[in-house]
Amino acid sequence: MDQQQLLARGLAALDFDISSGVLEKLLRYVDELEQWNPVYGFVKAKGQDLIIKHVLDSLGPWRILEDLFSEMDKQFSDNNKLRIADIGTGAGFPGIPLAIAFPQRSFLLIERLEKRTRFLENVICILGLENVEIHQNTVEDEDENLECAIFRALRPFADKKLFRTIWKKVKLGGALCAYKGRIMHAKLELTGLLDDPVLSNMAAHAKITPVWVPFLEEERCLVIARKTLNI
Length: 231
Hints:
Radius of gyration: 17 Å
Number of strands: 7
Number of helices: 9
Strand content: 15-25%
Oligomer: single chain
Helix content: 40-55%
CATH architecture: 3-Layer(aba) Sandwich
Distance between the termini: 48 Å
Largest sheet: 7 strands, mixed
């Protein structure tokens, strides 16, 4: 099975309409990544592993996120439109695949390294992703507050200083979404926040949802915490 067949089957398994242009854009993204990766070393995976462990892994929870975004639309008016911020996006995971999957949604990719932001700028130009903005920055130095903060392979929740910063930047009515591996590990990470004055309520009310990724034999889950008046 070649890369196109693998990705097409994975998307079909996730109930994507592959006639919508999603497949073609994702393949072009993979092609750009494989051209730049030997020079910049964005990810260790290549070939089928790149598609399974990064592209399909990024899209695994798309139905969960779709429901979340629809629910969050009720919290934000047209003047304060929901935007999804991918923190520490690296080579664009999960932000680029999600931006392709949700062309009607606005995405902000936050990445501090110039070599990565140059790559991302090239990708959004080639793919014509008008719904993506890139900030070469750290989340600590971001001026704007965030409706939805999403991240994958960032840092464990044990980095309390980082996650205090992220949580404080999430707007009321907004959400924090963390891609995680094993559910047990995610629970342990959240338990470690229960004594933190800033993060304890977030951790106590966070929901962990299992995620299935086609062709991946490893456990995945998504941690979602909504920011309400009580949190």
